[in-house]
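User: Run a structure prediction on this.
Assistant: Running it now.
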Amino acid sequence: MSNRPIFFTATGTDIGKTHVLCALLEAQRARGQAAKVLKPVLSGFDAAALEGTDTVRLLLANGQDLSIETIDAITPWRFKPALSPDMAARRSGVSLRLEAIIDWCLDAIARDRPTIIEGAGGVMSPIAEDGLNLDLIRELDAHPVLVAGGYLGTISHTLTALRVLDGRASIILNPWGETPVPIEETRDALQRFAPRARIHVFDPADTSNLLEVIDGNNSD
C-alpha cells in the first residue's frame, strides 16, 4: 500500500470541509480499516468547548478516544484566535513555520493505512507565516481533495483552485445552503472545463462514493 497522503482542502472557508471528511472517515471505518487522520494546525480552538472543535469531530468520526494525548497526536498546533493560522500564531506569540509542519506531517504519515491530512481554510490560505496550504500539499506530494459548494460563484472558485493545483484533484461538491441550480448541473459544468478532475457529489445518506477518493489516490 502506498503511503502517499491525501490532503483535504477547500475553495474557501465555511464550505463544510470537516463535515465531509468526517463522513469519509466513518465510511472508511465501516469497511473495516480506519484511516489515520491529521489536522496539524487549528485556529479557533476553545479548550472549554471541545465538542465543537474540528479536531475532536475528526477524532470521534475516526473512532478514536478523546484525550489530550489524542488531540496532541493529530493537532500539535492549536490557537484560540479564530483567524488564519499565521495571524492566530502571531497573536499567540508563536512562530509557525512551514518547514516544521512539513517535518511533523512526514513523521506522522502511516505506512500501513491511508493518511488523510486536513488543511486550514482554502487551498490558497496561509497555513504558516511562510507558506500556504498549496505549498504543504506540494511538499508532501499529497493527493489534493478539494471540497466546494453549490453556491453562485462555485464554478469560478473551483476552477481557480484547480488551476493552482495543476488541474489534478478530486473534487467533492457539498450542496449545503442556497444552491441556485441543481448540484448535478454544477458538476457537469465543472467536468467540461476540468476533464482530468474526479468529481463527486456529497450525499450524507450514501457516502460510499467518497471512498473512491482513497481507492483512486495513486492514479494521478
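The chain has one domain: 6-215.
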